[in-house]
Amino acid sequence: MLQCLEGFKPLFASILRCCDLNNQPRGLEDPELLARETVFSVSEIEALYELFKRISSAVIDDGLINKEEFQLALFKINKKESLFVDRVFDLFDTKHSGILGFEEFARALSVFHPNALVDDKIEFSFQLYDLKQQGFIERQEVKQMVVTTLAESGMNLSDDVIENIINKTFEQADTKHDGKIDKEEWKNLVLRHPSLLKNMTLQYLKDITTTFPSFVFHSQVDDT
Amino acid sequence: QRNSGPPILINAFQLIGMSSCLDLSGFFEK
Fold first, then answer.
1. Do residues A111 and A3 both lie within one domain?
2. Which residues form a coiled coil (chain A) (predicted)?
């Protein structure tokens, strides 16, 4: 009889693993900690996790978002190399592993919440445009981003016109006249031209719990 | 005399901000 039960052991083990109540979903081990350290509530964190699961399983269902899945989620097609998507992905990838876990995803998206601090949005956008991460934005970097944007949208401007736009930008932004834009100058520019931060706010994040209601079936807490 | 020329971009970052690659709302669109 005992031998018979021995045979069932592997079966019982896998069933137990399946229903292991404290087997937290990967990346959502501590939604309350994430809620305390971001602008999201616990329910919003859990709803965001539903979005994360969708994105992270699009190509390889491994509970992590690689760059291909990141790009696919944004544009629904596999775009060719994109300077900006690379920069955004790198800023999400705070652990520099080349892949995004849920915690990185949630913390980065928190900055895009309408309720996030403007200073956090200014910091993120500065990092985004500081392509070489030198602590300032150089003229050459601005030109590279302008040319990239024009190429992406199929717009054509002569080099003179591009140089003119960049001259005008540095006239306004480079108040210390050292040929580069530092974080303070960037903040001053953005405060004078708030539209420069328009990409830094996603209204969708305000109703994430209604967009991804399925989180309630996995909710671990009663978030009133 | 009416100024009918194209809108003058105030600076390069406004142009860069038009890049679709910087618009993350795609995450939420099916």
1. yes
2. none
Which pLDDT score is estimated for A81? 77
B17 and A146: CB-CB below 8 Å? no
Q: Do A6 and A71 belong together in one domain?
A: yes
Closest-CA residue to A205 (of A44, A85, A31, A93): A44
Query: Cβ A112–B24 below 8 Å, yes or no?
Result: yes
Side-chain half-sphere exposure of A9, counting CA atoms within 13 A: 6
Let me know whether A105 and A72 are in one domain.
Answer: yes
In whole angstroms, give the CA distance from residue A98 to residue A105.
13
ipTM for this prediction:
0.81
**What pLDDT is recorded for position A28?**
84
Work out the average pLDDT over A121-140: 97
Residue reference for tokens 């990409």: A199
Chain A interface disruption, residue of B9, B20, B21, most A CBs within 10 A: B21
What tokens were used for A96?
């520099």
